[in-house]
Specification:
Layout lengths: L1 H24 L6 E13 L14 E12 L4 E13 L8 E14 L11 E16 L8 E15 L4 E13 L17 E13 L6
Antiparallel strand pairs: 1-2, 1-8, 2-3, 3-4, 4-5, 5-6, 6-7, 7-8
Amino acid sequence: MTSSFKIYKPTIVVLAVFLVGVFSFSQSDTSTFKAQVALGVNSPSTDGFVTGFEGKSLNFPTVSLGLQYMFKRNLGIKLDYGFNRISNESGTPDFKVNYSRINAQLVYDTSRILSFFPPRVGTFIHAGPGFSMIKPLGDYGENDESFLNMMAGMEFHYGLSDKLSIYLDMSYIHSFSRDFDPVTNGFGSFNGSLLTVTIGASISLSGCYYCE
C-alpha cells in the first residue's frame, strides 16, 4: 500500500496545483473550465512486449481524469492523468502491468468546422506531450519503465445540459522508449504505444459550455 501511494503521489500533487492555479486564473463567465472523468478499454502495440510475454489485444480498465481550460472559444489546454491495466495473453506467463501517464495537451474545438453535427454535439481534438510510467505486478515487479510520450485524440460530446455532457474519446499514445536491454528487463513489462477508447462525463466548473 505504501509503495503504491509513492507511485501516485507526484500525479496527485500536480493535479492539485493545476486545479488551484486554473481556479485563480478564471475570470469570465464565458470561459469554459471543465472536469472530465472517463472509463474504457485499451489496446497495446505488439512491439511493446518481448517474445513469450505478449499482452492481450484488448484490456480493461482504462481510466482518465482531466482538467480542461478553454482560454479562447476554440482553443484551450488540458492536463490529464490516465491509468491502464494490461494483462497477459492466454498461453503466456501470467503477468499484469499498470500503465500510468500524465499529459499536457492543447485542445481545439472543431464544432464550428464540423457544422453538420446536431447543435448539442461537440467535437474536439487534443494533442500534447507527456510522461508514461510502467509498473509490472507480481513476479516481475522490478521491471518497471518510464519514458516520454506524445498523445493525440478526438472527443465527441453530447450535451445533456448547459453544464454536463457525455463524451466518447479515442486516443493514441505514442511512446518514446528504448528497447529492453537486456531482454529479461522486458519480462512481464511493456514499453510500446497504446490505443484507448473511453466514455465519460464532462462537467463545466465555470461558465457555460454552450454559451455564445
